[in-house]
Design goal:
By secondary structure, the protein is mainly alpha-helical. It has helices at 4-17, 52-63, 75-86, and strands at 24-25, 48-49. A two-stranded antiparallel ribbon has the order 1-2.
Length: 106
């Protein structure tokens, strides 16, 4: 049997490492229940520019992901993602937005 969480982490890591230089990114975990020990869905308070430190921080956060949010709830985190984009302090600098959903398939 495939370890779908490990595959999702690996895919997300490859994706982050291969973002175009100058891109802004953030990572939002999602599910039906937010565990008490994980008060925020987002890795960063707002989208950050791709640089070595931010990629390293993102990879560290990804390595700690667990499949502990029960059912998949996509609507709420998508609303939060678009709200974060709308309120980004550098929104005039960010011309294009891409939102990618990656799941462990459960």
């Amino acid at each position: 049997m495939w370890n779908t969480l490990a595959l999702m982490k690996q895919a997300l890591g490859v994706f982050i490492k291969n973002l175009e230089e100058g891109s802004y990114f953030n990572i939002c975990s999602y599910g039906s229940e937010n565990p008490k020990d994980e008060p925020n869905r987002f890795v960063f308070p707002t989208s950050v520019i791709k640089n070595d430190k931010n990629v390293c921080d993102a990879l560290m956060a990804i390595s700690k992901f667990e499949a502990n949010w029960k059912l998949t709830d996509i609507k709420t985190p998508l609303e939060e993602v678009f709200e974060q984009i709308k309120n980004h302090p550098d929104k005039k600098l960010i011309k294009t937005h891409h939102v990618y959903m990656i799941t462990d398939g459960k």
